Amino acid sequence: MILIADSGSTKTSWILTDGNKVVQNIVTSGYNPYYYKDEGLLNTIRKELSPQITTSKIRNIFFYGSGCSSEINCKSVKYALSQLFPNSDIEVNHDLYGAAIALLHNNKGIACILGTGSNSCYWDGYNIIHNVPSVGYLLGDEGSGTYIGMLILKGILEEKAPAEIIKSFYNKYNTTFEDVLVNIYNEPNPNRFISKVSLFAEKNIDNEWIRNTIKKSFIDFIENQLVQYENYQNLKVSFTGSVAYYYKKILMEACHEYDISPGIILKDPIEGLFNFHTKKKSKA
Fold this sequence. Notes:
alpha/beta, 21% strand
């Protein structure tokens, strides 16, 4: 059995496969080693994953996770997995590496993540050749759910958004100006709270201010990430992540303004990862 995982800050998607077909789909909490202590992943998989599968049957684990960009973080994740899957061969890679595999397989191009966070890379078909650094939600993450949430929250809190949007937001979440600030500055994992505001945007997508705000976030992503890649206008640019998927029409508008040729858009890279690893196994 093969276990494949795509882990973001919000959720982790798991696929259990016998190498030919999907045996089981499982979703657990997200995990990012930059934001949580080492035992965070161990506790999550022990409580949410282990009860649903037979660990002794799993021979290979491919884990692609946000925050797994350094050797120490990869070792931390691998250690946690090895405690519950002692008989498995475990590979841990960055979620951007997984996104490139899922989107492009062995074809060159630019792979982008637009989910809770954002990132991008130039992929030569086998390796990441160039990655414009992603500095996280406090300093960047343009085009992500968190970035969209911050732009919308800023407009609402500063009363620069349309009056009907401000009223609708406070009513929907039964919250106040002060409550929002507490969630941002005093509660743990503020990026999760902020990114949820992008769901409010989805419900109000017909509002011109909301649409313009989302488009601005994508333009900021293009200008801060994509235009930094040499020859970017002659490469296929593919996207994965819920933000890219649900706002694909606005994303395409922004891409066309910069003469970018969009490739495929996957809601979740796990589908592409499954296709890649099962295809790879069949050739072995």
